[in-house]
Amino acid sequence: MSRQVGMGVAGEIEPGQRRRVFVDGRCIVVFNVDGAIYAIDDACPHNGASLGNGQLEGHVLRCPAHGLRFDLRTGCTPGTGGLSLIKFAVETVDSKLVLNLDEQNAVLANGTGGNAAGQPEAQHCATRQEK
Ligand code: FES
């Protein structure tokens, strides 16, 4: 069953801003990067550090704990594959931002959902082949 949570009026999170959303004990960070909205689980796939205060350079978020970088568009480490963020779908419905929290529908960078138990698990991006 799909779980959707309203996050207020679209446009409240302005470009360059981020907001934490707490739902059922889970923290999700929502970013507006140049008008595009991205929502990720606030746990680094490396060792679980909070990503909410990570430095953002364009679409690339740096984990404050050990410095791994993740592209919010793909969830992957730029250029190398590696660990993947857990992303959640965000849509605008009647001028409101709606976050889809259904873990089965969580968008992992490899295009799959959460595991069979409905729990997020460490995922890896495919290693890119350079030509
Ligand atoms: S916990 Fe994020 S890079 Fe180690």
Please explain how this structure is put together.
This protein is mainly beta and 131 residues long. The chain has a single domain (4-114), classed as Rieske [2Fe-2S] iron-sulphur domain (Rieske Iron-sulfur Protein). The protein is 0% helix and 44% strand. It is built from no helices and 14 strands. It has strands at residues 4-9, 18-23, 26-33, 36-41, 55-57, 60-62, 69-71, 76-77, 81-84, 86-88, 90-93, 96-100, 107-108, 123-125. The strands form 4 sheets. Strands 2-3-4-10-13 form a 5-stranded antiparallel sheet, with no helix packed on it. The chain has a 3-stranded antiparallel sheet with strand order 1-12-11, with no helix packed on it. A 3-stranded antiparallel sheet has the order 5-6-7, with no helix packed on it. It is globular and about 40 Å long. The chain starts with a strand and ends in a 6-residue tail after the last strand. Residues 109-121 have low confidence and may be disordered. Bound molecules: FE2/S2 (inorganic) cluster. FE2/S2 (inorganic) cluster is lined by residues 44, 46-47, 49, 63, 65-66, 68.
